[in-house]
Amino acid sequence: MNVDGASLAGLTILSCRQLGRGLDLDASVESCGGRVVRLPLVEPRPPADGGVALAQALGGIGNYDWLVCTSANGVDALGDVELPSGLQLAAVGPFTGEVLNARAQRAVDLIPPVHTARGLAQAFPAGQGRVLAPLAELADADLEVGLTGKGWSVDVVRAYSTAVPNHSADQRAEALRADVVVLTAPSIVRRLVEVLGCARPERAVVTGPKTAAAAEAEGFDVVQVEPAAVLSGLVIHAGRIGQ
Questions:
Q1: Looking at 136, 162, 188, which one is the last position of a domain?
Q2: pTM strictly above 0.85
Q3: Is 226 helix (H, G, I), strand (E, B) or coil?
Q4: Which domain covers residue 186, as residue numbers?
Q5: Predicted confidence band at 243 (pLDDT cuts at 50, 70, 90)?
Q6: What is the 3-state secondary structure (H, E, C) of 73-131?
Q7: Which residues have C-beta within 8 Å of that of residue 5, sequence separation ≥ 6?
């Protein structure tokens, strides 16, 4: 991820990504002179049923035509189940695709140009057969509705849940001093407001229209971008701050 000639000098960026995620963006921000502080708002947990439904679905993995993953956590939830060679694979975006590639030891068949559940459904081929979608408990119905509308029989399995990690007073204080926050889901918007309150950063770079709507409803100054263009959104905010 690079923006030629971009400068984020003096800008502090708040990342709310899960620990271990988003490190490529951190490196890009730092290479442009910015500083990243972290306040993780996602910690994966087992689903409410303890993984029973997922285990049942994976026990019949050979009966599916497609496996569709909308997050790296969904891929991780698969455990060590063997994925049949004839099972086609779809991922919501490049990072999830890389994790699924490594898990399956082969290339993913489909990554949509728009890296959202709705974008994945729109890019998915029409057809008949069965699709397994291991999703988060908070995931909306966009993927299921879109694939069902194209003729597929979709089994949505709640593969994991997420919780807000505990934060130290120092973490919260550092987050409050950030100039811009990166928000990647409506749930992240809500959690940030719950953790930091009204004193949270006013400016946000957001991915996707639903996240944008949630952030605008909370009063953020929003720049909406595609997931691969977060750095460009940060540059836009840097320009506004410097005016």
A1: 162
A2: no
A3: coil
A4: 12-42+164-242
A5: very low
A6: HHHHCCCCCCCCCCCEEEECCHHHHHHHHHHHCCCCCECCCCCCHHHHHHHCCCCCCEE
A7: none
